[in-house]
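Run: sequence + magnesium ion -> complex structure.
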Amino acid sequence: MTTVIRTQSVENLVAIAEQFILQGQIVDVGAFGSGNINDTFLVSIDSSGEKHFILQRINTQVFRQPQLIMQNMRTFTEHIYQRLQHKPLNRRWEMPRVLSTQAGQDYCIDAAGNFWRAISFIEDSRSFDTMQNLEQAQEIGYALGMFHNLISDLPPEKLADTLEGFHITPLYLHNYQEVLAKTTPKLSPEVNYCLQFVSDRTIFAHTLENAKAEGKLPLRLMHGDPKINNVMFDTTTHKAVSVIDLDTVKPGLVHYDIGDCLRSGCNPAGEETEDWDSIYFDTDLCQGILRGYLSVAKAFLTENDYAYMYDAIRLIAFELGLRFFADYLAGNVYFKIKHPEHNLARAIVQFKLTESIESQEAQIRQIIQDMK
Ligand code: GN1
Ligand code: MG
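>> structure
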């Protein structure tokens, strides 16, 4: 049975947060992070144990079966915990833990039907929206590689698909074409640029899915959203200590992750800028991330994995632009926005980044080649 709390709105956050604490008092609940889908809060507690935890309201329009997320999290965090017990790392590394309610459940549902869950906070750590230096790039790569490494021996079928169609670029393209058929976008230079940009790359959109269908890239477990600000850094040592945001850990391609990590990490202007001329893909940061990644991931990568790395970087930047643009055309139904043109601006950032990646194809391929 799931605990039902008599609440209607976010005003009752404290009552919800209280469901997840076993000792101490709540001293603060504040909005946290910059997620585009779920609502995230940092809860501070006056207790002798851990001082904070993360409370989240899962967007059930996006995650239709949020209990699968919790089930997956239990499965892979337990797997990783066992691995680390058996063979401890020689540096700080922590996994976020699922916190149970007082009734021993993994989540609670409020009277308005909202789905709430709590996750431990990685103490004395922080994340960054843009890369600060080359050392950090290497650490981000290490963090993704370590995460892949730790789940690489968990069979993919042990985890449920928490978000069907996620990172399947041809499906996003199909959805975009459907939206386009139903709407008459208000034409502007920005909209025209995006329409043309997508139309020039419709064949390319199939690259990774074709490779998967042809058996060139195996289905593995992936993180799903390893963007730069989902890696936590120790505030003292400045080393990566955790990867967070684990809702999309599910069967997929590690290439989606490699692409997502690089498209977000190598964009010094960040994905929220509107200064489109400042956007470029930084190949030094790319080299740093890949060096860190391969220092822990080399063992499970095949020749084909390397062969598709460049396409993955280009494709995930393009795909995210396509997702933002389609959402703009559809009336902003998926990503949270701060103003009506927000998703259009975000799409242009990703398309400019894709252009920069394309213009540096030879260098990027060389970096990958040299690192094998
Ligand atoms: C969304 O909500 P957030 O910020 O963790 C999205 C990712 C995108 C990202 C772009 C489930 O993640 O795929 O890369 O925005 N998550 C989902 O910032 O669609
Ligand atoms: Mg996310």
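>> summary
Residues 1-8 have pLDDT under 50 and may be disordered. The chain has two domains: 10-122, 134-371.
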